[in-house]
Amino acid sequence: MSTIESPAGAVRQPRARGGRIKKWFREGGLSTFLFFVPLLLIFGFFSFYPIVRAAIMSLQHTSIINGAVVARMAGWSNYRLVLTDPNLWIAAKNTAYFAFLAFLFGYPVPLAIAVLMSEVRRRKGLYSVLAYMPVIIPPVVAILLWKTVFFDASSDGLFNKVLGWFGMDPVPWLETAGHAMPSIVMEATWAAAGGAVIIYVAALTSVNPDLYDAAGIDGAGIFRKIWHVTLPQLRAVLILTLILQIIATAQVFLEPYLLTSGGPNNATLTVLLLIYRYAFENSAGGDYGAATALSVMLAIALAIISAVYFRLTRSWSTNS
Amino acid sequence: MNVDTSTVADTPAPTASVTQPTTPPAAAKVTRRQRRKEAEAQQRGILSTTDLRTPRIRRTHRVVNGILLFVLLLWGLVPLLWLAKASISPTQELLRHPLSLWPKGATLDNLHEAWYDLQLSLYFKNTIIMALGSWFAQLFIATTGGYALSVLRPKYAGVVNAAVVSTLFIPAIVLLVPLYLTVLNVPIVHWQLINSYWAIWLPAGAAAFNVVIVKRFFDNLPREIFEAARMDGAGPFRLFWSVVLPMSKPIVGVVSVFAFIAAWKDFLWPLLVINDTDKQPINVRLPAIEPATEHAVFLAALFISTLLPIALFILFQRFFLRGTGLGGALKG
After folding, report:
1. First to last CA, chain A
2. Residue A122 Cα to chain centre, angstroms
3. What's the pTM value of the predicted model, to 2 decimals?
4. Which of A259, A261, A271, B273 is the most exposed place for a label (fewest CB within 10 A)?
5. Which of residues 86-145 of B touch A (CB under 8 A)?
6. Rounded distance, CA A29 to CA A20, Å?
7. Distance from B61 to chain A by nearest Cα, in Å?
8. For B124-153, what is each residue's pLDDT tens digit?
C-alpha cells in the first residue's frame, strides 16, 4: 500500500552540501516539513514511543515512586510471573469461551438480520436505523441499563418478568458462574451486531440478481438460494468479519468489568480484565511490567491467529 | 448506497438526477418505465419482482417483513423508549410495573434531580469539552498529515506513511500501560498530563485510521486543480486552506462525526487519566454514582447520556449507514 517514490533519485548529481540545503528551502522543503510536524509529534509521543516502550517495559520492573517512573531491567521475570499465574489460565479459558459463544450466537445474528433486510422493499432505511441503534448508545449506558434493569435477578427484573409471562422461573442472569458469561454474550451481541448488519447489507446489494434467477431456473427454493448463492457471494466479507470479531472478542473488557467485575468466582475474568488488574487494581502498587508482558503476549497470539487464519482461508476465499 | 458514484455529470437531462451508476451514457433519455424498472432491479434481493406477484409468496414476504420489523423495534427502539419512560416514572411505580406502557404519576422530577443534584450538568459539560478537544485533535492531525502525505508528498512521505499504517496492526491494549506512563510524564518535555484534558486530547490525535482515510480521499482529488493553484502562486498553506479543505467537506464530516461519537463513548482511558471527579465525563461518573442513586433518577441520568449521540446519529445517519462508515464500524 505504501508507495516509496524516488523519481529523481537515480540521476541525482553530487552537489555541495550548502547548495542542497538551499535548494531544499527554495523548493518549499521547510513548509512541507511543517505540515508533517503535528503528525510526527503526536504519533511520536503517543503512538510510536509507547509501542516501543511496551516491548521494553515487558522486560523491566517499573514502579512509580513519588510521581517519578522508576524502571530497572528484569529479564523474562514478568513473563514468567504471568505464565505461572493460575489466573492467566482462567482468564484465557474464559476469553476463549466468550469468543466461542459470541461466534455461536453473535456471528449468525447480524447475517440473518441482513439477509431478511435485503428482502425488504419499502422503508429499508428505517430497518437499518433500528438495527444500528444499539451501536450508537454509549456502551457504558447500555451496559448499566442491562445490568440494573434487564439482568435484575429478582422476579421483577425485566427479562424475568417476561419469562414469568410464559410461566418460567426467574433466571439469575449475572449471579451464578454458569449464567454470567452467556448473559454477557447476549448484551455484547446486541451492542455490536448493528455494525456487522450494515456491512452485510452493503455486501448483499452487490450480489448480481441474475444468479438468483439462474438458481431459480435450476429449481432452487429460497433456502437453497441462500445457501448456494447468497452465502458464497458473501464469502470474502464473512471471512473478514469473522477474524475481526475474533480479534475484538479476545479484547473484551467493558462488559465483564461493569457487569460482573470478573465474578462470580472469576467466571468472567477475561485477559484484558487481568491486564487491568495487574496494572491498576493491585493493592501492592501497579505491576506495570506484568501487565505489559501479558498485553504483548496477547498481541502476539492475535497476530499468530490472524496469520494462520488468513493462510487457511486464502485458497477458500479466492476461488469461487 | 451508491450516492457518490452516480454519473449525473455525464447526463445533461434533468431527469438524470436519479440515474443509477450502472446506467450507460447512451441512456440519456431515460423513460419513466425504464427508471422504475431499474429502481426495482436495484431493490430486488433473493426474491424477484415476479416472485412477489405470486400471492402465496407475497403473503409470506409480508409476514416475514412484519416479524422482522417487530424484532428490530424491540432491538433498537424499545430499550430507548423504555429508558425514556423510566426517566419520567416514580421509582415505586417503576419497580412495581416495569412493563406498563405509561407511568402512573409521570413526573419530570427524576430528570431535574439527575441534572442538578447528581451534577450531570457538570459531567455533561466535561464530556463535551473532552469530545470537542478530541475531535479537533483528530481532525487537525488527519487533515494536515493527510495533506502532507498525499499532496505535498516529499521523499520521506513513504516512510512516514508506512510507520503510521503499521500502528493499525498493533492492538490498542498494548499501548494502555505505556501510554498511561507517558502521560504521567511525557518524555523530553516532562509535562504531567494526568488530571488534565490534554491527556485525552493529545493521544486522541494519534488515530492512524483517520490519517489513512483522509489521505485516501486526498489521493482521489484531481491533481490538475493543485497544479493550477500552484501556477497562480498559491503556497502550501494557501493550497491547504483554500483549495484542499473546501474540497474535502465529505471526509471532514465523516471523520468529525466518528471522532466525536468515539470520544463520547470512551470510558477506560478517561477513567485512568482523569481522577478529579469534578473533571470526569459522564461515562466515568455513571458507574460510580449507580450504587448510591435512586433507581429512577439513575435511569434518568442514563437517558440524558444517550440523547446527544442519538441526535447526532439521526442527523448524520448516512455517514453511519453508508459504506464510508464501514471503517469506523470495523475499527470498533
Report:
1. 25
2. 33
3. 0.84
4. A261
5. 86, 95-96, 98-99, 137, 140-141, 144-145
6. 11
7. 8
8. 999 999 999 999 999 999 999 999 999 999
Query: Which pLDDT score, from 0 to 100, does residue B3 have?
Result: 36
- Nearest neighbour of B76 by CB, restricted to A4, A131, A303: A131
List, in sequence order, every residue forming a beta bridge with A61; answer none if it has no partner: A72
pLDDT in tens, A140-160: 999 999 999 888 888 778 888
User: Could you please report the per-residue DSSP string of A66-95?
Assistant: TTEEEEEE-TTHHHHHHHT-HHHHHHHHHH
Whether the complex's predicted ipTM surpasses the cut of 0.90: no
Are the C-beta atoms of A144 and B290 separated by less than 8 Å? yes
Q: Do residues A133 and A194 lie in contact, with contact meaning Cβ atoms separated by under 8 Å?
A: yes
Tell me the CA distances in angstroms from A257 to A16, A275, B170, one per residue in order. 62, 12, 23
User: What number of helices (H) and strands (E) belong to chain A?
Assistant: 17, 2
Q: Read off the C-alpha cell for B41.
A: 432491479
Partners of A62 in the beta sheet? A71
Q: Using 50 as the pLDDT threshold, list the residues of chain B that sit under it.
A: 1-28, 324-332
The pLDDT tens digits for A59-90 are 988 888 777 778 888 889 999 999 999 999 99
Which chain A residue shows the shortest CA-CA distance from B211? A39
